[in-house]
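User: Can you recover a sequence for this backbone? Please restate the input before giving your answer.

Assistant: Of course. Working from this structure:
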């Protein structure tokens, strides 16, 4: 798909010209000192959301039917997963595929980015054995024990 760029001010001065470009692809409006904006047609955005959802479900099916293949593919995409213990790698694959499907269904990908950052932080801990041992010890505290959250 073609992406056409315009300065934001052009939308204000010549809106019909900018909107006409939407027939050929998305329009990116560049702004000074602020993130760019993207204009797209609703039908095109709906198709994109449907495609994300289908890819998410395909990944989830791959995780169920061929977890080894998906694990190797994700290791290529996220090389830091090699520092995770085997059980954590399996948990990452499960959570990744579930989150991709959920994010695609809601058209909200912030939770996916957060989940990946959290697993990356876990991999960083496992990459440093001293830190992993120190964090794996029980924490001495005062007061009542906090129950483990249900998963």
């Amino acid at each position: 798909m073609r992406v056409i760029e315009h300065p934001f001010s052009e939308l204000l001065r010549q809106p019909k010209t900018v909107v006409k470009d939407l027939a050929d692809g998305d329009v990116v409006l560049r702004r000074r000192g602020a993130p760019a904006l993207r204009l797209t047609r609703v039908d095109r955005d709906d198709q994109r959301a449907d495609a994300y959802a289908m890819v998410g479900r395909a990944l989830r099916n791959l995780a169920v039917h061929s977890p080894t293949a998906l694990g190797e593919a994700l290791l290529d995409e996220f090389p830091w997963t090699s520092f995770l213990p085997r059980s954590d790698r399996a948990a990452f694959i499960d959570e990744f595929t579930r989150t991709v499907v959920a994010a695609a269904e809601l058209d909200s990908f912030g939770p996916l980015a957060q989940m990946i950052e959290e697993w990356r932080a876990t991999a960083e801990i496992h990459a440093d054995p001293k830190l992993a041992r120190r964090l794996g010890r029980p924490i001495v505290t005062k007061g009542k024990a906090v129950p483990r959250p249900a998963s």
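That completes the design. Strands lie at 2-7, 25-31, 34-39.
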